[in-house]
Amino acid sequence: MKTKKVYVLLTAVLVACLLLPMAGSAVTISPPIIELSAAKGDVINQALKVRNESTTAAIYYLSAEKFVAAGEAGTPQFVSGGEDVDLASWIKFPTESIAVPAGATVEVPFTIAVPSYAGPGGHYAAIFLSTVPPKATATGSSVAIASRIGSLVLVRIAGEVKESAELTEFSTIAKSFSSLPVDFSIKIKDTGNVHLKPMGTILIKNMFGSIAGKVSVNDNGGNVLPDQTRKFDAQWVKNPTATNSKTFWGKYRDQSENYAFGKYTADLNLSYGTAGLTLGGVTSFWVIPWNIILVNLLIVIILVVIIYFGVKRYNAWLLKKYAKKSKK
Known about the structure:
There is one protein chain. By secondary structure, this protein is α+β, with helices and mostly antiparallel strands. Helices cover about 15% and strands about 45% of the residues. It has helices at about 85-90, 135-140, 250-255, 290-325; strands at about 5-10, 25-30, 35-40, 45-50, 60-70, 75-80, 90, 95-100, 105-115, 120-130, 150-155, 165-170, 175, 180-190, 200-205, 210-215, 230-235, 260-270, 275-285. The strands form 4 sheets. Strands 1, 3, 5, 6, 8, 10 and 11 form a 7-stranded mixed β-sheet that branches. The protein is elongated. It starts with a strand and ends with a helix.
């Protein structure tokens, strides 16, 4: 069995989009992600656009590699060689390399020939443009100096496609907060055989049942791959520019700008798949702005003291006044 070489992407893209910047070179590739539907035996013609924004011409070598999701952030993990390359082996290029003049945009055509034995559901690969030939990279001679940029390709093959998912976690990072923001963690496991794009909202209600806020989930359209669990983050905040100060009065200002008080309930509503399937969950949390409470309590105490002594002095003045009248 051939040795597999795995390249782990250094930056996670939360939306299952990949755009690897070419080190030391102003080159871009678009689109960063291609999502297609096909049937067994189909031949699909597609193209990428590569722009060289540098002042010198460049040659890029073309290749395709299978990818899987690594970790809950959905970071792509690339696998070259081996027996199970799947979609990567279906992608063909008319040439092994392309030349891109300085300041020019070149279209890179490619073909996806779906075999008759292709299984239904999702198939995944990445198309790379590298500064060195793939064979040189595979031998390890140019790994240190090779730079590449890529685009993800997600193909859905028709047939017995199973769209299903489970909500494995919906929670806040803490049970109580002194002010907004409140950070939510949503984990979804794809239990089907095709990638899913769960999207929706979190509806937040206060202790009286009134709507206090609404938060979008997965606005960027991140995908969850089959048999993988992906974590999505969401945040409820009123003023995102608050400084998150560490001083007492800084916290007081932050709590004033991101004020909330009491117990809140958050309802998660997500939809996914072509049939509009749904996922839902409920969690609760408290927001107690301690600095505001302490300042207001101090103000109340001062007012009570002032009123107490004011009333006491006024009563003493009245008693003194009545005492003088009684002597006359």
